[in-house]
Amino acid sequence: MLTLVLLLLLKGLCLCIRGAFGASATYNVGGDKGWVVGLVNYTEWAANHTFYTGDSLVFLYEAEVHTVLEVGKSGYEDCSSANAIASYEDGKTSVVLRQAGTHYFICGVAQHCPAGQKLQVVALDAPAPPPNSGPPAFMTAGGLQPSTNLGTSLPSLPLPLSSLLTLGPISYYILLL
Fold first, then answer.
1. Residues 6 or more apart in contact with residue 83 via CB below 8 angstroms
2. What's the longest Cα–Cα distance across the chain?
3. What distance, in Å, lies between the first and last C-alpha atoms of the chain?
4. Per-residue pLDDT reduced to its tens digit, 16-67
C-alpha cells in the first residue's frame, strides 16, 4: 500500500514538474517491442500513458515490413487507408501531437491492422505553466513569509529530519522539493 501511495506521489510530482517547465514528452510506441504486429496490445499500451499536446510518438519499425498511417476514426475502425491524413514508411517515424483530441494510427500493410497493429491516443491540452509570482517564499514557524535575503536563510522543514527519515528516502526527497 505504501508503495502504491509513493508511486502516485511520484507521478503527481512528475506532472507538476512537467507543467512548471512546459516540457513535452517522447513516447516509443509499443515500448521496447516497437511498432509490430501481434506482439503488443496498443490499446493497453496507450491506457498506461497520459498524452498532452506537444508530446511526440515515435514509431520504430522495419520499413520493409510496416508503415504508419494517421487516419480518421472511420479509417481506424475499418482498418482503411483510403483517406489517410499522413503516411510514413521510414522505419523511425516521429509524430508530434499538435492538437488536443483523439489521434488514430494504423499499419497500412494488408492484415496488420485487423491483427491489432493500430493505435488510438487522446492528447489533452498541455498544462499551462504557473504564473511568475516573484521571489520564492519560505515556511517559518510564524507562517508563510517572503525572504528578503536568500543567501543567509534556509527554509524551515515542517517536520523534524528524524521524522522524514522514518518515512523513507523517497518521501524525504519529495518533501525537500
1. 71, 72, 74, 75
2. 69
3. 23
4. 444 444 579 999 999 999 999 999 999 999 999 999 999 999 999 999 999 9
| CATH hierarchy code of domain 18-124 | 2.60.40.420
Quote the CA–CA distance of 43 and 66 in Å, as a whole number. Answer: 19
Note the pLDDT tens digit of each residue in 136-154.
555 445 554 454 444 444 4
Residues in the chain: 177
> Which region, left, alpha or beta, applies to residue 81 given φ > 0 means left and ψ of -120 to 50 means alpha?
alpha
Instruction: Kindly give, in sequence order, each residue whose CB lies less than 8 Å from that of residue 23, ignoring residues fewer than 6 positions away.
Output: 17
Helix-helix angle 169-176:2-21, to 10 degrees: 30
What are the residues facing 60 on neighbouring strands?
Answer: 92
